Amino acid sequence: MITEIGNFLLSISASLSLCIFLSLFLKKTISNEVRFLFCKIASHIITFLIFISFVLLSYAFLTDDFSLRYVANNSNVSLENIYKFSAVWGAHEGSILLWVFVLSIWSSCIVLFSSSIPKVIVSDMLSIMGILLLFFLIFILFSSNPFDRIFPIPINGRDLNPLLQDPGLIIHPPMLYIGYVGTSVPFVFAISILLNENIKLEWISWLRKWVISSWMFLTIGISLGSWWAYHELGWGGWWFWDPVENASFMPWLAITALLHSLIVSEKRGIFISWSILLAILTFSLSLLGTFLVRSGILVSVHAFANDPERGMYILIFLSLIIGLSLGLYFIKSRSLIFEKEYTVSSKEFILLLNNLFLTITTFAILLGTLYPLITSSLNLGKISVGAPYFNFIFSALMLPIVFLMSPAIYSTWKKTNYSKLTKKLLTFLFYSIVITYIFMNFYFKSDIFIVYLAMSLAFFTIISSVAKLLLILKNSNNKKIISNIFSIPSSMLSNLLAHIGIGILIIGITLSNYYSIQKEVAMQQNSQILVKDITIKFVDVKNKISKNYTSQVGVFDAYINNDYFISFFPEKRTYNIQKNIMTEAAINSTLLRDIYVALGENLSNDTWVVRIYYKPYIQLLWYGVLLMILGGLFGIFGRNKLEKKLNNDS
Amino acid sequence: MIKITKKSKKRIIRISIFFFAISSFSALLIYAFSKNMVYFYTPSQVIEKEAPLEKFIRVGGMVKKGSVLRSNNNLKISFKIYDLEQQINVMYEGILPDLFAEGQGVVMTGRLINSNTFIADEVLAKHDENYMPPEVADMMKDANGELYKK
User: Fold this and answer.
1) Chain A residues close to B109, C-beta within 8 Å
2) Which residues contact A311 (CB under 8 A, 6 or more apart)?
3) Residues A74 and A85 sit within 8 Å (Cβ to Cβ)
4) Are both B97 and B118 inside the same structural domain?
5) How many domains, in total, are found in chain B?
6) pTM for the full model?
7) Which of A90-99, A223-232, A578-587 has the lowest mean pLDDT?
8) Cis bond upstream, residue A146 (ω within 30)
9) The complex's ipTM?
């Protein structure tokens, strides 16, 4: 039954999406009101239908309905319920269904929150959404159908990939997808602006919130992935420049650039044409990411079982979308070019540089990710581009971006008082160098130049942002500090929080990268090892039996100055069905450091290979990201001046 | 003489700054790129001396059954990998990935010290018993394109 209902719902949704798209061509014949009403209702119906099919699939998983091939391949009776549910998006078919589901939610959101945009623009946006929905629905129905049957019906399923049986991975894909797919909103906006050859600055401030939302979810999704890799992969890294990571990082960089160029477009009415182009590129990169992950051409932890024909289908769609929208852009964008005067010291110019560097960074990562794929598909040899390339190019390009954050905060539109600006910034720069110097000498007694550079820049950003916050608080009339915080314009608060977050993130990355202590040793039971000031003693290995895996649990006691303070229980799990082995690291975190213990192989009876890491300040990484997300939340939910003014007027 | 207005002068300066930035970053990019390209070789190519010695490369193949030797008290390990025609020795010191096993596909980065010995810095094996790295899958296909299995 589920198969029929599921297919039926998806087919209806596909036909409705087609109708919404076709309504674009009836613009002249039917009235705006009627078309808007149709698009609006049809979009909601599609969302509802896809939601139901999503619920059906979840139901099939929770009730162990192995008559569905997808369920049989990715679940098992002994799987915990929460993982049965997350298995819905644990493999290809289900994750594409999630993609479409999220896309339909975004289009419904456009309907719900676009009262300030003319109906004709919104209808056009929904029509473009329609063609995107149609494509993915056809893709599901014809080549990745999660409702396909299997015969004979197996008694038990093949289990969810154990790698995915982790709390971090329950929400990582949905968050990432919300962000990924969210880039469709600026895309459809850009296309309908090009179709109508008309734009108003209020629309841009409306668009900015959507861009911030998508940016925020991408940030959450990517950082959850990192967090998971750190805890689950068992070698203490959190970013590997894996092509799939890059696939999510490129849209993030592009949308970050878009976020900044939209500020200029909104405030000054320039860079509009560029913003439109960036919106198109961002969505194209999202689609490219989907293609890379789902086509099976990648060598990556994310590349599970894949099918090259599916890749072809996405590739064709990808080329069509990019080709058509860029074509439209080059024909129509001339009408959107406005020029206004601004000087080299203006905020416009600094944001222009920000965009330039972010775009180059995106391009550099794109090159490193695609080049090996292109050479191998053209039989020009099998090449890979190593992490050193990405590390080098990314750090080199991030330095100017981070450096520019402080001038961007203090500069003003059109023209900035140059001497005042430099005086202020030089003071901050001086403080940050002093702080870096004291900190580094006191704590690490090290003289690595690049660390000093990165730390000074991070402190420069943090000090400038905090000083700006204090300045605003001092200048506002209200005496109570709490109400003062709420009186800061939310766009400013969101901007400062996110930039402080970046500063903290950089400190975390730099210190944990350069001053980690890593020990990989063969340890006998009852032997001990000294890491920094901590003595770690290998006590025992115990066997543990769980519902769907058995594991060996190491027991390690840690001492500081002969005083016991904590035990570690790293695990080596063997999953019953797929016979996979998984490493679960044991981590003890404080703000100052993480101690990371993981079990390697069993060499002989009582000797194990053990991995022990001491990572200073790595927690700052997650705190930095949290601040960035908080900044995003203020950006979305805070009301900006323009809206306040509009509300006061009405 | 062509008269240069203030506006067009500004534009010329702007465009030249832009091009300067683009070209210097392209140079940086190409430099970093060419230094970090890592080529992949099969055991046959290694034996036939197609792969350079003492250079950072990637090598992949199937781990030969019964060839894995490891020390009892340190992390040194040696094994053989093979493709359809040839086999080479691999030496490694460190922790192997969870799914490293005899008879499985493996891809490594490291360098060759002679035409049949590879010193691995990093060993990659995937978290799936059915998975074979694409490079290895390619080389294990015979003339008919059928996957070769022992």
Assistant:
1) 386
2) A291, A294, A295, A296, A297
3) no
4) yes
5) 2
6) 0.92
7) A578-587
8) no
9) 0.81
Q: What is the mean pLDDT of residues A355-371?
A: 92
Q: How far is B1 from chain A (nearest CA, A)?
A: 27
Domain assignment of residue B92, given as a range? 40-139
CB atoms within 10 A of CB A261: 26
Interface touch A520/B95, C-beta < 8 Å: yes
Of B37, B96, B133, the CB nearest to A383: B37
Mean pLDDT of the region A482-501: 83
Beta carbons within 8 Å of A536's beta carbon, 6+ residues apart: A528, A529, A530, A556, A557, A558, A559, A568, A595, A597, A612
Domain range summary for chain A, segments of one domain joined by +: 1-165, 180-337+352-369, 417-513+622-649, 517-617
The answer to whether residues B14 and B75 belong to one domain is: no
Residue % of chain A over a pLDDT of 70: 94
How distant is the Cα of A572 from the closest Cα of chain B, in angstroms? Answer: 9
What is the amino acid identity at position A250? Answer: M
Residue pLDDT, tens place only, A408-456: 999 989 888 888 889 999 999 999 999 999 988 887 777 789 999 999 9
C-beta atoms of B127 and A384 within 8 A: no
Q: B20 in contact with A at a CB cutoff of 8 Å?
A: no
| From A280-284, A396-400, A445-449, A503-507, the region with the lowest mean pLDDT | A445-449
- B102: CATH: 2.40.50.140
What pLDDT was estimated at residue A303?
Answer: 47
Does residue B126 have a pLDDT over 70?
no
Are residues B58 and B123 both part of a single domain?
yes
CB contact set of A482 (below 8 Å; sequence gap of 6+): none
| Residue B95 domain-assigned (yes or no) | yes
Q: What is the pLDDT of residues A166-200, one digit of tens each?
A: 887 788 989 999 999 999 999 999 999 999 988 88
**Same domain as B86, residue B118:** yes
Give me the residue label for tokens 């977050």.
A501
Q: Which candidate, B14, A19, A609, A169, places its Cα nearest to that of A11?
A: A19
Cα distances (angstroms) measured from residue A213 to each of A109, A178, A206, A633, B49:
12, 9, 12, 8, 54
**Spatial separation of the C-alpha atoms in residues A57 and A63, rounded to whole Å:** 10
B15 and B81 assigned to the same domain? no
One domain, residues B118 and B80: yes
Block residue for tokens 């590390």: A391
Those residues with Cβ within 8 angstroms of residue B63's Cβ, 6 or more apart along the chain or in another chain:
B79, B80, B81, B100, B101, B102, B103, B104, B105, B106
Dig out the tokens for A242 from the structure.
């894996």
